[in-house]
Amino acid sequence: MAARLNDGDDFPENSEINVTPFIDVMLVLLIIFMVAAPLSTVDIPVDLPVSNAAPKPKPQKPIFVTLKKDLTIAVGENSVPIDRLGMTLDMETQLDREQRVFIRADQTTSYGELTRLMNALRAAGYIRLALVGLEGGSSTSAPEAAQAQP
Predict the structure, then answer these.
(1) What is the CA radius of gyration of the chain?
(2) In what order do the strands lie in the sheet with 63-67?
(3) What is the pLDDT of residue 139?
C-alpha cells in the first residue's frame, strides 16, 4: 500500500485548543479530593467545658416555655397542652412570631421530648428559639441563653 502526502490545503489549520484532556484531568482531581476530604477530618470525642461567656441582656418581657420533669409544658407560669402551645404563645406575644422564645427543660428530660417541643414551636411559626442553662456550672440560678439555630 502506498500513501501519498499532499502538500496542498486539504486540511485547514485548527487554532482551537482541545480542552477535553483538561476536563478529564480536572474531573479526576475532583474525585480524588472528594474521596480524600472526609478522610482528613478527625472525629474525636471531646467533653466540652461550660461556657464562661457573659450573659446577654434579657428582653423587657421574656417568653419562657418550660418542659418539666413530668413532661408537662408551661408558658410562663401556666401549664399548657402541646396542641394549644401555638395559640397560647400567639396571645403572649400579640402575634409577634419574630420574638425570641426561651426554652427551659429539666436536666432529666429526654432529648426526644425536647426535640418534640422545638418542633411544635416551629410548627406554630416561632423559629427564634434560645435554650436556657445555668451560668458557668455554678450553683446560682441565673439563666444564660444559648441561641439555638433553626
Answers:
(1) 31
(2) 78-80, 73-75, 63-67, 101-105, 129-134, 143-148
(3) 44
